[in-house]
Amino acid sequence: MLKKLKNIPKEDLIKYIIIMVVTLLLCQNFLQMHYSSDTYVLYALGYMEYPSKYFLLDGRLISTVVCYLAGILKIPIKAYIIGMDFIGIIFVGLSICTVVKLLEKLIKPKSNILKLSIICASFLLVLNQFTLEYLLFPESAVMCMGLFLIIQAVRIMIENPKHKYLKIFMCLLAAGISYQGLLNIFPTLAILFYLVKEIKDERPYKEKEKEFFIDMVKLAILVLISLGICMALVKIGTKALNSEQDRKMHLMTLEAVRLRGETVMEYMDELWNECMAMLPKHTNTIVLVISTLLIIALKPKKEYFLQYLLILIVSFGICIVPMFMFNTGVCGRVNVPLTMLWGVSIIVLLTLVSEKPEKKILSKIIYTYAIVSCIINSIFIMQNISEHIAANRVDENTGATINYLVKEYEEKTGNTVTKFSFMYDRNPQQYAVGIKPMQSLTERKFACSWCIRSAVDFYCHKDLKYTAMPREIRDRFKNIDYKEFTEEQIIIEGDTLYMLVY
Predict the structure, then answer these.
(1) In contact, 376 and 283? CB cutoff 8 Å
(2) Which of 136, 188, 208, 372 is most open to solvent, judged by the fewest CB atoms within 10 Å of its CB?
(3) Strands 465-466 and 419-424: what pairing?
(4) pTM of whole model > 0.85?
(5) Pairing between strand 490-493 and 465-466?
(6) Phi and psi of 431, rounded to 5°?
(7) Are the CB atoms for 59 and 180 separated by under 8 Å?
(8) Which residues, including other chains, have CB under 8 Å from residue 380's CB and lie 6 or more apart?
(9) How many Å apart are CA 289 and CA 351, to the nearest integer?
């Protein structure tokens, strides 16, 4: 390892250190205690029970092992969360470094401005807005390691070493059992890097086209085999643990398909047009239009332009098709290829313009476009992580208020609260007032049905037993619609805490 580091040119070593430092700075707000809905459930179940309730049912074996190991070593959960995020950020930085190295090897940039633009495009490709969800959950290091493994599979594909396909398969499988959603990144990256390679390759196009087609078929088979193994592990885990969990969509009729199609279009509107509130509305469309116009202005070979369109079609396809098969919902972490398209487009532009040094004005426009895009993306990365922390503060205030009310009640009455029940108000909201609606990143944990009890337990330092809400209490909560948390939403009677979720 030390020998390899010594062999890295000083200029490259400095560049990689800067990339790692910038990645850490952009994601620094994750290096404090922060909470996702999963974090509260982890606190409630503990390291040894949590994996069997979630990871094993999803075939995520590496996350299972890591969680068990943390339990055996008795690592405090706060140290675990921050430590896992630190390791995750390192994996993200290493992924960016690998992409930069690959692109420089293929494009062979001669000017410093092109080198800088390649670094900016690599940040856009790897550390985009939806990638943030990889750093959100307690198993962040495992998810980011999976991202790194996908990038390594692409590197192996380009470098073409001995036993190439076996090595790619091992990387894909390891990424899949880290988090299956990572596998949909690989097709987008594989086609992108093949396109970059083809543009720079001086062989006749027909020869390159044949190689591309054969390799893509082989790689598609490897992805499908990896996905098949992951699905088999899910089935085995579900049976072994006697779980009735079923996330598949059972579309038995044409009407069901049509209705699902309408839902999928709503999801895509939220993901693509609204950008999950992580970027200004229609940013993705604007970026795609600008990029396509610049590519057309460079007058590339028709075949290269068609391959660029293929990347777009594949990226949309691998995000949309699973929505018909599984109940994914609006979820950034399983739709990362959509936000990767910004980086993809700029990398294609930089590759094409590197072949046309005579187009000086276009070159300046494209370099500026790459650098400004990276700056904009970085600003929103920091803002969105800060928004996550702000959403956590709102939850903490809610939890502190509930805890105060419970303690006050117990001191006054002498009763001990041991039970918990909740219901939703007439129009429940997923986000707190003033917080950007960024799905898992900023959702109210006290609005998430599967973690409300865990959150209440966490802040009240109790292990409350769930009980049904009696009609009398329901009638008192009936037809009420709150827009923010107030003490009126909490009723404590006897040994039970009743909560109306706004």
Answers:
(1) no
(2) 372
(3) parallel
(4) yes
(5) unpaired
(6) -125, 155
(7) yes
(8) 129, 278, 279
(9) 18
Residue 104 tokens read as: 């420089």
Amino acid at 327: N
Judge whether 188 and 347 are in contact, CB under 8 Å: no
Query: Which amino acid is located at 236 in the chain?
Result: I
State CA 10 to chain mean position distance: 33
Per-residue pLDDT of the chain (502 residues; tens, 9 = 90+): 555 656 778 888 999 999 999 999 999 999 999 999 999 999 999 999 999 999 998 899 999 999 999 999 999 999 999 999 999 999 999 999 999 999 999 999 999 999 999 999 999 999 999 999 999 999 999 999 999 999 999 999 999 999 999 999 999 999 999 999 999 999 999 999 999 999 999 888 888 888 999 999 999 999 999 999 999 999 898 888 777 666 676 777 888 888 899 999 999 999 999 999 999 999 999 999 999 999 999 999 999 999 999 999 999 999 999 998 888 878 999 999 999 999 999 999 999 999 998 999 999 999 999 999 999 999 999 999 999 999 999 999 999 999 999 999 999 999 999 999 999 999 999 999 999 999 999 999 999 999 999 999 999 999 999 999 999 999 999 888 999 999 999 999 999 999 999 9
Residue 322 in contact with residue 264, Cβ under 8 Å? no
